[in-house]
Amino acid sequence: MNLAQNLTQHIANPQNIIIIDGATVNAAWVSSHTTYLASNVLPSPTVPSYYIVDLSLISNQFSVLSQWLTNHVANISFIDSYSFILLGHELNDTAYKTQINTAINQNDFYCIDGDSLTKMVADFEHTFYPNYLQVITDTNGIPKRLDLITNYSDENLCFSIPFFQALFLAMDGAMENLEEVKFYFTKVTNADDKSTVAFKVVYENLEGYYDYSGGQTFNILDLSKKPAASIK
Known about the structure:
The chain is of the alpha+beta class. The protein has two domains: about 20-85, no CATH class; about 90-210, no CATH class. The chain contains seven helices and ten strands. It has helices spanning about 25-35, 60-70, 80-85, 95-105, 115-120, 160-170, 225-230; strands at about 15-20, 35-40, 50-55, 110-115, 130-135, 145-150, 160, 180-190, 195-205, 205-210. Strands 4-8-9-10 form a four-stranded antiparallel beta sheet. Strands 1-3-2 form a three-stranded antiparallel beta sheet. It starts with 16 loop residues before the first strand and ends with a helix. The relative contact order is 0.18.
């Protein structure tokens, strides 16, 4: 049950949603967050009651959004939020997918498997915000490695740990076969010749394409996205 339905009629863009477990917050929290709430209804929530927060109503600044997520880690129902976290990163433009596949064919990529990626984080399944993995590139903008950031603060080319958790969960069986999940990080360039990074993930017969979280160069691949979508 969305407890905010009698407080607002606002419908949030799913890309910007985060789910708060209603049992973990009090009346003072509700009062201070009413202007950020949405009345969307979850089809199959895992918690009896919840609030839907539209992060785009909180701020357009990555540092503010990241701090809010960090402050509310104990209140977030991650299992209910994961699908919305993925939506904020999905890359649907065919031109960018083609660029990624071309770069892979030309060996201009950084590859890491799921096992190696999760081992970069001490307790991957129980690590949340403000922990991110940052893509480090060479002088030509080609990805060359990932670094763990344990206190995200508006850095470029980052993906949150909850994003990767959501991704593994969405690929049925991936967590039991992490070494078979392959990530291919590549450079991509938009029509204005501005470059950034994105990646393709492959597991068995599944594949997906995603763009990065946050940073000062947001978001040259999809101008319709808000910072709230990509910071998650």
